[in-house]
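To illustrate the input format used throughout this study, we show a single complete record. The first block contains the structure-token representation of the backbone; no residue identities are included at this stage. The design step must infer an amino acid for every position from geometry alone.
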């Protein structure tokens, strides 16, 4: 006997599964409630299933899953423990399609495969062989009058299901219904939970959604939770747990899974680990635990991966479950402790970070907290623009090093929450960093876009611009441009102005080119700050004093501004001659010196192993 698989297409359920299990059909036992799927108002379970199947067919979905079948091996049949409503509906559907198609090229592979202990005569008489008599009647009353012996509730629902399916097929499926038949036969899948013959019939733990499309993670959950107890039974032959014990076991596993899912879908968890939420709340964690899961064209790549590992390669379900749970526990341990959380969070939220799978692999190899901290410190150091001597590079500029500069500003912010200068480590709120599009702002403006609302240059502005512009042997780089002479004329105008300089719209564009091409200090790290994109755009078009005022207003509105950025615009980090209202070349150089001083302290901490 071939080992039955965990998943089959609908055709395979009625053919391959029975062959693999060496059985003749499916048995619906007497203790099961009868067929109860409604189909009278267009909103019943039968109607929903038909609409979902047709929607999947119309959208060319590669696979559509119809939840689980829980079966138990009997002497000649597979006893249906859970899933009889779906199995019966699908049997009726295939029988109706055969009747509508009226051709020999359609194989009704469901015929005589489903056996009701209580209603078998009706299924055989009116579904398998004489469905035309049922479909020809216009009302239940007419059918009941034709065959009074079948006047009962089960037959009532089966009758209306057949009529609803016939009407749906006639309206929604083309005359050539073979493509639809092939789709539901070969692309609609059911997941099989096959119990051992000596077990008592039990209620499956997995919740039945009546044909509703499943999330990938729900399929993985069902596969692991239903297989794990059976896996234990196969290993432990001395003790056979009762049905109640197995149900309690599955319930406990389900609670553990839900705890993992709840943790993985928390907003703070998602933002810290830079994971996406949505329907697949747990997908990011499962993929982190199993990085070999691909992104194939199927709708459920994770389930396909686990089913393949379990069915073909004999991968134990218990080991899979433990690996997912242990991954969550490891991540939560790092996330809960402030120092490791801040180091890990910095790596995850930096520019061009390593893949999370690589980080997890490295930290899993750490046997102690100290080893994990050393590994994280090394990871932080690798993201910083350091010289061969281990110091922060001196030639960092916006045009060539925007990514590394972002990392410098981020570590300056996070460092306030690390155990430095006698302070205890506390959690940095990475959710505020992850929620925005962070950009580098030029503190003193440097292009035409930043200057489009500037109408006059004050005395202080003129002084600062003169300090910033560098000439090469008396000439400007901008003089080589098509508008070079007019840019030179603006420069001369600035040089000759004393109290203020009024500039028109055309000159504002030339001023941007003048600064961008001839004031290299504007691109240095000392003239940059980290800001969220929307705040950055609201500060553009203004000089320092107006930017500072607007930034204070944003903070008053509850917007998050990185701590280092706030200190820079508040002039709290160093003293210069320009005061609170201007930003000069001296401020740029002082800011750069301050950054290097702070980075020396941070680098010494990172080097402390």
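Output of the design step:
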């Amino acid at each position: 006997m071939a080992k039955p698989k965990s998943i089959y297409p609908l055709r395979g359920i009625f053919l391959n599964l029975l062959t693999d299990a060496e059985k003749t059909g499916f048995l619906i036992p007497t203790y099961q409630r009868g067929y109860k799927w409604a189909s009278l108002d267009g909103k019943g379970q039968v109607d929903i299933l038909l609409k979902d199947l047709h929607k999947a067919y119309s959208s060319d979905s590669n696979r559509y899953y119809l939840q689980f079948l829980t079966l138990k091996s009997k002497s000649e049949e597979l006893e249906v423990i859970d899933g009889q409503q779906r199995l019966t509906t699908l049997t009726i559907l295939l029988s109706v399609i055969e009747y509508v198609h009226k051709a020999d090229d359609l194989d009704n592979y469901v015929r005589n495969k489903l056996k009701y202990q209580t209603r078998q005569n009706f299924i055989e008489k009116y579904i398998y062989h004489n469905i035309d008599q049922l479909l020809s009647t216009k009302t239940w009353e007419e059918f009941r009058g034709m065959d009074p012996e079948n006047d009962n509730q089960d037959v009532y629902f089966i009758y209306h299901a057949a009529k609803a399916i016939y009407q749906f097929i006639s309206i929604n499926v083309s005359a050539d219904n073979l493509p639809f038949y092939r789709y539901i036969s070969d692309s609609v899948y059911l997941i099989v939970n096959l119990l051992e013959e000596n077990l008592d019939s039990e209620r499956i733990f997995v919740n039945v959604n009546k044909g509703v499309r499943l999330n990938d993670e729900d399929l993985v959950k069902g596969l692991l939770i239903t297989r794990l107890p059976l896996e234990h039974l196969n290993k432990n032959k001395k003790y056979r747990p009762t049905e109640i014990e197995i149900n309690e076991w599955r319930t406990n596993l389900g609670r553990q899974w839900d705890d993992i899912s709840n943790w993985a879908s928390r907003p703070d968890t998602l933002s810290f680990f830079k994971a996406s939420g949505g329907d697949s709340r747990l997908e990011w964690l499962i993929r982190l635990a199993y990085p070999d899961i691909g992104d194939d064209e199927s709708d459920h790549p994770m389930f396909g991966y686990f089913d393949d590992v379990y069915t073909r390669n004999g991968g134990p379900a218990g080991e899979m479950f433990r690996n997912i749970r242990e991954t969550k526990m490891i991540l939560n341990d790092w996330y809960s402790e402030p120092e490791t959380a801040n180091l890990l969070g910095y790596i995850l939220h930096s520019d061009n970070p390593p893949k999370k799978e690589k980080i997890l692999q490295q930290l899993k190899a750490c046997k102690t907290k100290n080893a994990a901290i050393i590994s994280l410190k090394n990871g932080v150091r690798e993201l910083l623009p350091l010289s061969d001597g281990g110091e922060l590079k001196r030639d960092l500029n916006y045009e060539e090093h925007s990514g590394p500069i972002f990392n410098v500003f981020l570590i300056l912010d996070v460092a306030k929450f690390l155990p430095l200068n006698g302070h205890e480590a506390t959690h940095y709120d990475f959710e505020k960093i992850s929620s925005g599009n962070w950009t580098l702002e030029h503190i003193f403006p440097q292009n035409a876009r930043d200057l489009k609302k500037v109408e006059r240059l004050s005395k202080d502005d003129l002084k600062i611009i003169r300090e910033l512009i560098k000439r090469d042997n008396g000439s400007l780089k901008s003089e080589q441009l098509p508008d070079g002479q007019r840019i030179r004329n603006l420069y001369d105008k600035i040089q000759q102005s004393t109290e203020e300089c009024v500039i028109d719209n055309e000159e504002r564009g030339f001023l941007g080119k003048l600064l961008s091409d001839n004031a290299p200090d504007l691109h240095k790290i000392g003239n940059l700050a980290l800001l969220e994109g929307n705040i950055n755009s609201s500060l553009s078009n203004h000089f320092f004093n107006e930017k500072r005022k607007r930034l204070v207003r944003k903070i008053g509105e509850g917007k998050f501004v990185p701590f280092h950025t706030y200190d820079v615009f508040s002039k709290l980090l160093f003293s210069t001659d320009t005061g609170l209202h201007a930003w000069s070349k001296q401020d740029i150089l002082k800011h750069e010196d301050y950054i290097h001083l702070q980075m020396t302290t941070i680098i010494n901490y990172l080097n402390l192993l």
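Structural context for interpreting the output: The chain has a mean pLDDT of 84. The CA atoms of residues 400 and 523 lie 9 Å apart.
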